[in-house]
Protein backbone atom coordinates (compact mmCIF):
# COMPACT_ATOMS: atom_id res chain seq x y z
CA UNK A 1 0.00 0.00 0.00
CA UNK A 2 1.36 3.40 -0.96
CA UNK A 3 1.88 6.07 1.75
CA UNK A 4 -0.95 8.13 0.24
CA UNK A 5 -3.35 5.18 0.23
CA UNK A 6 -2.34 4.34 3.82
CA UNK A 7 -3.09 7.92 4.93
CA UNK A 8 -6.50 7.80 3.25
CA UNK A 9 -7.26 4.48 4.97
CA UNK A 10 -6.23 5.88 8.35
CA UNK A 11 -8.41 8.95 7.90
CA UNK A 12 -11.37 6.73 6.96
CA UNK A 13 -10.75 4.54 10.00
CA UNK A 14 -10.58 7.60 12.25
CA UNK A 15 -13.89 8.82 10.82
CA UNK A 16 -15.55 5.44 11.38
CA UNK A 17 -14.31 5.29 14.98
CA UNK A 18 -15.56 8.81 15.61
CA UNK A 19 -19.00 8.01 14.20
CA UNK A 20 -19.27 4.86 16.30
CA UNK A 21 -18.52 6.88 19.42
CA UNK A 22 -21.05 9.57 18.48
CA UNK A 23 -23.82 7.05 17.84
CA UNK A 24 -23.01 5.49 21.20
CA UNK A 25 -24.06 8.79 22.77
CA UNK A 26 -27.60 8.25 21.49
CA UNK A 27 -27.44 10.70 18.60
CA UNK A 28 -29.65 9.92 15.62
CA UNK A 29 -27.13 10.73 12.90
CA UNK A 30 -23.62 12.03 12.37
CA UNK A 31 -21.82 13.28 9.29
CA UNK A 32 -18.68 15.20 8.40
CA UNK A 33 -18.07 17.99 5.88
CA UNK A 34 -15.01 20.00 4.94
CA UNK A 35 -14.99 23.43 6.60
CA UNK A 36 -15.28 25.44 3.41
CA UNK A 37 -16.98 28.82 2.88
CA UNK A 38 -20.77 28.68 2.85
CA UNK A 39 -22.32 28.13 -0.58
CA UNK A 40 -25.73 29.63 0.21
CA UNK A 41 -24.70 33.09 1.41
CA UNK A 42 -26.18 34.86 -1.62
CA UNK A 43 -29.59 33.31 -0.97
CA UNK A 44 -29.33 34.05 2.75
CA UNK A 45 -28.44 37.69 2.16
CA UNK A 46 -31.29 38.04 -0.35
CA UNK A 47 -33.66 36.72 2.35
CA UNK A 48 -32.30 39.33 4.77
CA UNK A 49 -32.51 42.12 2.18
CA UNK A 50 -36.18 41.31 1.61
CA UNK A 51 -36.85 41.84 5.31
CA UNK A 52 -38.11 38.29 5.75
CA UNK A 53 -36.19 37.96 9.03
CA UNK A 54 -38.59 40.36 10.73
CA UNK A 55 -37.11 42.06 13.79
CA UNK A 56 -34.28 39.52 14.21
CA UNK A 57 -31.61 42.15 13.56
CA UNK A 58 -28.92 39.93 15.04
CA UNK A 59 -29.17 37.75 11.93
CA UNK A 60 -28.11 40.68 9.74
CA UNK A 61 -25.38 41.75 12.18
CA UNK A 62 -23.83 38.29 12.17
CA UNK A 63 -24.14 37.67 8.43
CA UNK A 64 -20.47 38.30 7.62
CA UNK A 65 -19.38 35.77 10.23
CA UNK A 66 -21.51 33.13 8.52
CA UNK A 67 -19.52 33.28 5.30
CA UNK A 68 -16.76 30.98 6.50
CA UNK A 69 -16.35 28.67 9.55
CA UNK A 70 -12.79 29.99 9.90
CA UNK A 71 -14.39 33.09 11.43
CA UNK A 72 -15.48 30.88 14.32
CA UNK A 73 -12.38 28.68 14.64
CA UNK A 74 -9.06 29.66 13.04
CA UNK A 75 -7.49 26.72 11.24
CA UNK A 76 -10.74 24.74 11.13
CA UNK A 77 -10.64 21.76 8.74
CA UNK A 78 -13.77 19.73 9.45
CA UNK A 79 -17.32 20.29 10.63
CA UNK A 80 -18.87 17.36 12.49
CA UNK A 81 -22.67 17.56 12.27
CA UNK A 82 -25.02 15.59 14.52
CA UNK A 83 -28.79 15.20 14.77
CA UNK A 84 -30.90 14.31 17.80
CA UNK A 85 -34.52 13.14 17.66
CA UNK A 86 -36.98 15.07 19.85
CA UNK A 87 -40.30 13.74 18.54
CA UNK A 88 -43.15 13.02 20.97
CA UNK A 89 -46.94 13.20 21.03
CA UNK A 90 -48.47 16.55 20.06
CA UNK A 91 -49.49 17.26 23.66
CA UNK A 92 -52.57 19.33 22.77
CA UNK A 93 -54.99 19.72 25.70
CA UNK A 94 -57.96 22.03 25.96
CA UNK A 95 -57.25 25.11 28.03
CA UNK A 96 -53.52 24.38 28.26
CA UNK A 97 -50.54 26.00 26.48
CA UNK A 98 -49.67 24.52 23.08
CA UNK A 99 -45.91 24.16 22.92
CA UNK A 100 -43.81 22.88 20.02
CA UNK A 101 -42.49 19.38 20.60
CA UNK A 102 -38.82 20.33 20.72
CA UNK A 103 -39.46 22.73 23.62
CA UNK A 104 -41.37 20.57 26.09
CA UNK A 105 -38.39 19.13 27.89
CA UNK A 106 -34.89 20.29 28.76
CA UNK A 107 -33.31 22.96 26.55
CA UNK A 108 -31.90 21.19 23.48
CA UNK A 109 -28.93 23.58 23.47
CA UNK A 110 -27.84 22.14 26.81
CA UNK A 111 -28.53 18.54 25.79
CA UNK A 112 -26.59 18.76 22.54
CA UNK A 113 -23.75 20.74 24.07
CA UNK A 114 -23.28 18.03 26.67
CA UNK A 115 -23.05 15.34 24.02
CA UNK A 116 -20.72 17.38 21.79
CA UNK A 117 -18.52 18.12 24.80
CA UNK A 118 -18.15 14.35 25.22
CA UNK A 119 -17.12 14.09 21.55
CA UNK A 120 -14.56 16.86 22.09
CA UNK A 121 -13.08 15.04 25.08
CA UNK A 122 -12.93 11.81 23.09
CA UNK A 123 -11.01 13.47 20.25
CA UNK A 124 -8.75 15.45 22.56
CA UNK A 125 -7.50 12.22 24.16
CA UNK A 126 -5.97 11.15 20.86
CA UNK A 127 -5.17 14.62 19.55
CA UNK A 128 -4.23 16.89 22.47
CA UNK A 129 -3.08 19.70 20.16
CA UNK A 130 -6.35 19.99 18.24
CA UNK A 131 -8.79 22.88 18.61
CA UNK A 132 -12.58 22.68 18.76
CA UNK A 133 -15.68 24.85 18.89
CA UNK A 134 -19.18 23.65 19.70
CA UNK A 135 -22.02 25.31 17.80
CA UNK A 136 -25.67 24.73 18.69
CA UNK A 137 -28.08 27.15 17.04
CA UNK A 138 -26.79 30.38 18.58
CA UNK A 139 -23.42 30.51 16.78
CA UNK A 140 -23.18 32.37 13.44
CA UNK A 141 -23.04 29.26 11.26
CA UNK A 142 -25.29 28.37 8.31
CA UNK A 143 -26.17 25.16 10.07
CA UNK A 144 -28.61 23.60 7.62
CA UNK A 145 -26.12 23.93 4.75
CA UNK A 146 -23.34 22.12 6.58
CA UNK A 147 -25.75 19.48 7.88
CA UNK A 148 -26.97 18.90 4.32
CA UNK A 149 -23.42 18.64 2.95
CA UNK A 150 -22.57 16.23 5.79
CA UNK A 151 -25.41 13.96 4.65
CA UNK A 152 -27.89 14.59 7.48
CA UNK A 153 -30.78 15.74 5.30
CA UNK A 154 -32.03 17.82 2.40
CA UNK A 155 -34.06 21.04 2.32
CA UNK A 156 -37.84 20.65 2.41
CA UNK A 157 -40.24 23.26 1.07
CA UNK A 158 -40.94 24.24 4.68
CA UNK A 159 -37.16 24.96 4.91
CA UNK A 160 -36.71 22.21 7.50
CA UNK A 161 -33.93 19.72 6.97
CA UNK A 162 -35.50 16.36 6.11
CA UNK A 163 -33.85 12.96 6.39
CA UNK A 164 -35.54 10.52 4.02
CA UNK A 165 -35.14 7.72 6.59
CA UNK A 166 -36.01 9.59 9.79
CA UNK A 167 -38.11 12.59 8.80
CA UNK A 168 -37.56 16.05 10.29
CA UNK A 169 -38.19 15.78 14.03
CA UNK A 170 -34.59 16.48 15.03
CA UNK A 171 -32.33 19.27 16.24
CA UNK A 172 -28.81 19.92 14.96
CA UNK A 173 -25.46 20.37 16.67
CA UNK A 174 -21.96 20.94 15.31
CA UNK A 175 -18.38 20.48 16.39
CA UNK A 176 -15.82 22.50 14.44
CA UNK A 177 -12.30 21.11 14.63
CA UNK A 178 -8.81 21.63 13.25
CA UNK A 179 -8.63 17.85 12.75
CA UNK A 180 -9.03 16.75 9.15
CA UNK A 181 -11.56 13.93 8.69
CA UNK A 182 -12.83 12.24 5.56
CA UNK A 183 -15.99 14.10 4.46
CA UNK A 184 -19.32 12.46 3.72
CA UNK A 185 -21.50 12.99 0.66
CA UNK A 186 -24.38 15.47 0.68
CA UNK A 187 -27.85 14.13 1.38
CA UNK A 188 -30.07 13.47 -1.64
CA UNK A 189 -33.85 13.84 -1.72
CA UNK A 190 -36.70 16.21 -2.33
CA UNK A 191 -40.37 17.01 -1.85
CA UNK A 192 -41.34 16.47 -5.49
CA UNK A 193 -44.77 17.94 -6.18
CA UNK A 194 -45.94 17.67 -2.54
CA UNK A 195 -47.10 20.96 -1.01
CA UNK A 196 -48.86 19.73 2.13
CA UNK A 197 -46.81 21.99 4.40
CA UNK A 198 -47.52 25.04 2.23
CA UNK A 199 -51.26 24.41 2.19
CA UNK A 200 -51.41 23.57 5.90
CA UNK A 201 -49.47 26.59 7.19
CA UNK A 202 -52.15 28.60 9.04
CA UNK A 203 -50.59 31.95 8.16
CA UNK A 204 -49.16 31.43 4.67
CA UNK A 205 -45.61 31.89 5.94
CA UNK A 206 -44.02 29.52 3.38
CA UNK A 207 -43.49 31.56 0.23
CA UNK A 208 -41.66 31.11 -3.06
CA UNK A 209 -38.73 33.46 -3.61
CA UNK A 210 -36.59 33.10 -6.72
CA UNK A 211 -35.85 29.40 -7.14
CA UNK A 212 -36.56 28.27 -3.59
CA UNK A 213 -39.15 28.19 -0.84
CA UNK A 214 -38.44 30.40 2.16
CA UNK A 215 -40.11 31.45 5.41
CA UNK A 216 -41.52 34.93 5.84
CA UNK A 217 -40.75 35.22 9.54
CA UNK A 218 -43.22 38.06 9.95
CA UNK A 219 -46.03 35.57 9.31
CA UNK A 220 -44.46 32.55 11.02
CA UNK A 221 -46.10 31.45 14.28
CA UNK A 222 -42.76 30.31 15.70
CA UNK A 223 -41.27 33.76 15.12
CA UNK A 224 -44.30 35.56 16.51
CA UNK A 225 -44.48 33.49 19.71
CA UNK A 226 -40.73 33.29 20.37
CA UNK A 227 -38.72 36.06 18.74
CA UNK A 228 -41.12 38.97 18.43
CA UNK A 229 -40.89 41.48 21.24
CA UNK A 230 -43.62 43.84 22.35
CA UNK A 231 -47.36 43.70 21.81
CA UNK A 232 -49.08 41.85 19.00
CA UNK A 233 -51.09 43.70 16.42
CA UNK A 234 -54.67 42.49 16.12
CA UNK A 235 -53.66 40.47 13.04
CA UNK A 236 -50.63 38.92 14.74
CA UNK A 237 -52.70 37.90 17.76
CA UNK A 238 -55.15 36.16 15.42
CA UNK A 239 -52.34 34.45 13.48
CA UNK A 240 -50.82 32.66 16.49
CA UNK A 241 -54.06 30.72 16.96
CA UNK A 242 -53.70 28.12 19.71
CA UNK A 243 -49.87 28.08 19.71
CA UNK A 244 -48.23 29.42 22.87
CA UNK A 245 -44.61 28.70 21.95
CA UNK A 246 -43.47 27.63 18.49
CA UNK A 247 -45.46 25.68 15.91
CA UNK A 248 -45.32 22.13 14.51
CA UNK A 249 -47.95 22.28 11.75
CA UNK A 250 -45.64 22.00 8.73
CA UNK A 251 -43.91 18.97 10.23
CA UNK A 252 -47.10 17.31 11.41
CA UNK A 253 -48.40 17.12 7.84
CA UNK A 254 -45.09 16.13 6.21
CA UNK A 255 -45.25 12.64 4.62
CA UNK A 256 -41.64 12.03 5.62
CA UNK A 257 -42.76 12.06 9.27
CA UNK A 258 -45.33 9.31 8.71
CA UNK A 259 -44.12 5.80 9.67
CA UNK A 260 -44.25 3.20 6.90
CA UNK A 261 -43.38 -0.46 6.72
CA UNK A 262 -40.46 0.34 4.46
CA UNK A 263 -39.37 3.32 6.59
CA UNK A 264 -40.04 2.35 10.25
CA UNK A 265 -37.75 5.09 11.61
CA UNK A 266 -39.99 7.88 10.34
CA UNK A 267 -42.03 9.47 13.10
CA UNK A 268 -40.36 7.40 15.81
CA UNK A 269 -40.59 9.00 19.24
CA UNK A 270 -37.45 10.15 21.00
CA UNK A 271 -35.76 8.00 23.60
CA UNK A 272 -33.85 10.97 25.07
CA UNK A 273 -35.03 11.29 28.71
CA UNK A 274 -34.20 15.02 28.82
CA UNK A 275 -36.78 15.71 26.13
CA UNK A 276 -39.49 13.77 27.99
CA UNK A 277 -39.14 15.24 31.45
CA UNK A 278 -41.38 18.29 31.14
CA UNK A 279 -43.03 19.44 34.34
CA UNK A 280 -46.68 20.38 34.69
CA UNK A 281 -47.65 23.55 32.87
CA UNK A 282 -50.15 26.06 34.23
CA UNK A 283 -53.34 26.62 32.30
CA UNK A 284 -53.59 29.42 29.74
CA UNK A 285 -55.57 31.48 32.23
CA UNK A 286 -52.83 31.05 34.84
CA UNK A 287 -50.07 31.67 32.31
CA UNK A 288 -51.69 34.93 31.17
CA UNK A 289 -51.10 36.40 34.64
CA UNK A 290 -47.98 34.51 35.72
CA UNK A 291 -45.64 36.30 38.12
CA UNK A 292 -41.88 36.64 37.81
CA UNK A 293 -40.92 34.06 40.45
CA UNK A 294 -43.32 31.45 39.07
CA UNK A 295 -42.15 32.16 35.51
CA UNK A 296 -38.52 31.82 36.55
CA UNK A 297 -39.15 28.44 38.19
CA UNK A 298 -41.34 27.23 35.31
CA UNK A 299 -38.91 28.03 32.49
CA UNK A 300 -35.57 27.38 34.16
CA UNK A 301 -33.61 25.06 31.83
CA UNK A 302 -36.37 25.18 29.22
CA UNK A 303 -36.29 26.57 25.65
CA UNK A 304 -39.55 28.36 26.49
CA UNK A 305 -37.54 30.85 28.53
CA UNK A 306 -36.52 32.46 25.22
CA UNK A 307 -39.93 34.14 24.91
CA UNK A 308 -39.54 35.96 28.22
CA UNK A 309 -42.20 36.39 30.86
CA UNK A 310 -44.03 39.19 29.04
CA UNK A 311 -43.91 37.23 25.80
CA UNK A 312 -45.49 34.15 27.37
CA UNK A 313 -48.19 36.26 28.97
CA UNK A 314 -48.90 37.96 25.66
CA UNK A 315 -49.07 34.63 23.83
CA UNK A 316 -51.44 33.13 26.40
CA UNK A 317 -53.72 36.16 26.20
CA UNK A 318 -53.82 35.82 22.41
CA UNK A 319 -54.61 32.09 22.72
CA UNK A 320 -57.47 32.78 25.09
CA UNK A 321 -58.83 35.51 22.81
CA UNK A 322 -58.70 33.21 19.80
CA UNK A 323 -60.42 30.45 21.75
CA UNK A 324 -63.19 32.81 22.86
CA UNK A 325 -63.75 34.07 19.32
CA UNK A 326 -63.55 30.63 17.77
CA UNK A 327 -60.42 31.65 15.84
Question: What does this protein look like?
Answer:
By secondary structure, this protein is α+β, with helices and mostly antiparallel strands. It has one domain (1-327). It contains 12 helices and 10 strands. The chain has helices at residues 3-24, 41-49, 57-61, 108-126, 143-149, 196-200, 221-227, 234-239, 249-252, 284-287, 292-299, 308-325; strands at 29-34, 78-85, 98-99, 132-135, 154-155, 161-162, 170-177, 206-209, 212-215, 243-245. A 4-stranded antiparallel sheet has the order 1-2-7-4, with helices on both faces. It has a two-stranded parallel sheet with strand order 3-10. A hairpin with a 5-residue loop joins strand 5 (154-155) and strand 6. The radius of gyration is 21 Å and the shape is globular. The protein starts with a helix and ends with a helix. The model is unreliable at 1-11 (pLDDT under 50).
What is the total number of structural domains?
1
Order of SSEs: HEHHEEHEHEEEHEEHHEHHHH
Strand content: 5-15%
Total strand segments: 10
Q: What is the tally of helical segments?
A: 12
Globally, the shape reads globular
Cα-based radius of gyration, to the nearest Å: 21 Å
Largest sheet: 4 strands, antiparallel
Give the rounded overall mean pLDDT. Answer: 93
Low-confidence stretches: 1-11
Helicity range: 25-40%
Spatial arrangement of strands, main beta sheet? 1-2-7-4
Structural class: alpha+beta
> How far is it from the N-terminal to the C-terminal residue, by CA?
70 Å
Amino acid sequence: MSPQARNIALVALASDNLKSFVRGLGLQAVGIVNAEPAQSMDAYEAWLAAGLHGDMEYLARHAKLKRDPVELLPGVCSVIAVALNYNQSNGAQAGMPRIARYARGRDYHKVLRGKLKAVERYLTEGHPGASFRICVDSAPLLEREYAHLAGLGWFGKNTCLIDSRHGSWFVLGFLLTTLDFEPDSPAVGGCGTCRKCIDACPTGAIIHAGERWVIDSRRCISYLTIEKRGDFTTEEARMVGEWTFGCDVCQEVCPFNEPRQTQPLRGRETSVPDFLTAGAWPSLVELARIGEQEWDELTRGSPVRRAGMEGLRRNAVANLGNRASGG
